[in-house]
Write a structure and sequence with these properties.
Length: 352
């Protein structure tokens, strides 16, 4: 059983900045059935340009025969604010002007994305999440939501993510926005504005998602006499064009800024103090050669979230490994959840 739907929030949604959005819509998908105890919820938070169809983009970890399957679990994935897969975004109509927002869309933060998840959870009648999981930008959302304590999270799984977005990560995002801004059509207020810039931005981003070894393995030339038309060049162009067919430059612009805003220490005593507020059983997974979210960032999370477990994955693809290495993730997460369940049973016996 799967459902694709849109929830229209009837009230004003107040952003962390203090600005408010009217008529916010949240596109989401659910799979499976919520049980009588409402304790079988698996909530997946998606990354930068993904959508709410988690069984598609995280296939192998989610699916009918996967660890997280709709036969046992009630799986929820919501499209995030600013994305163009059904949730309110810069191309949505501003009810005040009757025109799309474009660059008048208010900036938002990772906390705002978590706040939107909570609105949907309330709508669905969910007050407890068995497993809250996210990778990259999705992990940032999951972490902020667990710190907010607006819902009970039993198990938190953070993959290839961090507590605060790094200067290195911000520099990558700014470079992508600079590429977008060189495309004059970005300021023309039209749905396809900035697409040439978006293509260049995606090319830049891909270099942070992959590794030297990955390109050497997949894009190396088989002959020595070429002086042009290189495989690596074609690949960058292809990936840029591929994104332009399914995304827009305005959503990309705002979502990259939201990622830059990520800092769990904002408004808190410190980043460490904020991480200490996480109460869920936590598993942090890093990728050994991730250059965008270096493994040191995941180790930092595990060191400062109380009793968190840490595990690492070796993957030639770097950051994108969190989407690719689903067999390894299944093994690590499956063992963690079994241990967590065993501890819960022991604790119940001790208190009985």
């Amino acid at each position: 059983m799967s459902t694709t739907a849109t929830y229209k929030y009837p009230k004003l949604f107040k952003l962390e900045s203090g600005k408010k959005l009217r008529h916010v819509e949240i596109a989401y998908q659910t799979y499976g059935k919520l049980n009588a105890n409402k304790d079988n919820v698996i909530w997946a938070c998606h990354a930068l340009t993904a959508n709410a169809d988690v069984l598609d983009w995280w296939d192998g970890l989610f699916g009918n025969s996967a660890l997280f399957n709709p036969n046992e679990h009630f799986i929820v994935c919501a499209n995030i604010l600013g994305s163009n897969y059904g949730t309110t975004n810069p191309l949505s109509i501003n009810s005040v002007t009757g025109q799309p927002y474009y660059l008048s869309f208010p900036e938002f933060t990772i906390r705002d994305l978590a706040g939107l998840h909570q609105l949907l959870a309330n709508h669905l009648g969910i007050n407890s999440i068995k497993v809250l999981i996210g990778g990259s930008l999705g992990g940032q959302q999951a972490l902020e939501w667990s710190i907010a304590k607006t819902i009970n999270v039993e198990n938190l799984i953070l993959v290839a993510t961090n507590a605060v977005h790094s200067p290195w990560g911000i520099a990558f995002n700014e470079s992508q926005r600079l590429a977008i801004s060189t495309d004059r059509t970005f300021y023309a207020n039209q749905p396809d504005g900035g697409l040439k810039g978006l293509k260049a931005a995606r090319s830049i981003a891909l270099l942070s998602y992959r590794t030297y070894e990955a390109y050497a393995a997949t894009q190396l030339e088989s002959v020595n006499d070429k002086t042009g038309n290189y495989r690596a060049s074609s690949y960058q162009n292809y990936q840029g064009e591929k994104l332009c067919k399914r995304f827009n430059a305005y959503s990309y612009w705002y979502l990259s800024k939201a990622m830059d805003s990520h800092n769990v220490g904002r408004g808190k005593k410190s980043i460490v103090a904020a991480l200490a507020e996480v109460e869920a059983n936590t598993l942090v997974i890093g990728i050994d050669n991730d250059i965008l979210f270096p493994i040191s960032e995941q180790k930092f999370l595990a060191e400062h979230i109380t009793d968190a477990q840490f595990s690492s994955i070796n993957c030639a693809y770097g950051h994108d490994g969190f989407l690719i290495e689903t067999d390894k993730l299944t093994n690590i997460i499956g063992n963690f959840l079994k241990e967590s369940s065993d501890k819960k049973i022991i604790k119940l016996h001790q208190t009985a």
